[in-house]
């Protein structure tokens, strides 16, 4: 039986920082947790959190791309070749 992605969930977080991020005075980290669940019960969670004034994409751009990807993933087999076929922002690909 081949494993298939059953769902993809995106949740935003805001985490306080003890020090400001490099190149900014920002004292919080904002990003998204992405959880992918497969039909046989396994799941994996990752993080999408582009750095302001460092990453080429903004948080909103990464979110929009992640939402599109989350809609496309269910029914697909998990593989790196699937990601290679897409032009993803670096924070989304990670």
Give a nutshell description of this structure:
This protein is of the alpha+beta class and 94 residues long.
Overview of this protein structure:
It is built from 3 helices and 3 strands. The protein is α+β, with helices and mostly antiparallel strands and 94 residues long. The chain has a 3-stranded antiparallel β-sheet. A hairpin with a 4-residue loop joins β2 and β3 (43-48).
What is the element layout, followed by pairings?
Blueprint: E1 5-16, E2 28-38, E3 43-48, H1 59-72, H2 80-84, H3 90-93
Antiparallel strand pairs: 1-2, 2-3
List descriptors.
94 residues; alpha+beta; 3-stranded antiparallel β-sheet; 3 helices
Query: How many strand units?
Result: 3
- Helix vs. strand class: alpha+beta
Question: Could you report the average pLDDT, rounded to the nearest whole number?
Answer: 89
Write the element-wise H/E pattern from the N-terminal end onward: EEEHHH
Largest sheet: 3 strands, antiparallel
Using only C-alpha atoms, the radius of gyration works out to 15 Å
Strands of the biggest beta sheet: in what spatial order? 1-2-3
């Amino acid at each position: 039986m081949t494993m298939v992605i059953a769902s993809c969930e995106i949740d935003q977080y805001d985490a306080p920082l003890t020090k400001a991020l490099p190149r900014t005075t920002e004292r919080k980290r904002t990003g998204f947790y992405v959880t992918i669940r497969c039909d046989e019960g396994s799941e994996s969670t990752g993080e999408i959190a582009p750095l302001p004034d460092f990453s080429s994409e903004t948080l909103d751009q990464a979110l929009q791309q992640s939402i599109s990807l989350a809609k496309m993933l269910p029914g697909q087999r998990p593989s790196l070749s699937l990601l290679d076929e897409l032009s993803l922002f670096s924070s989304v690909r990670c």
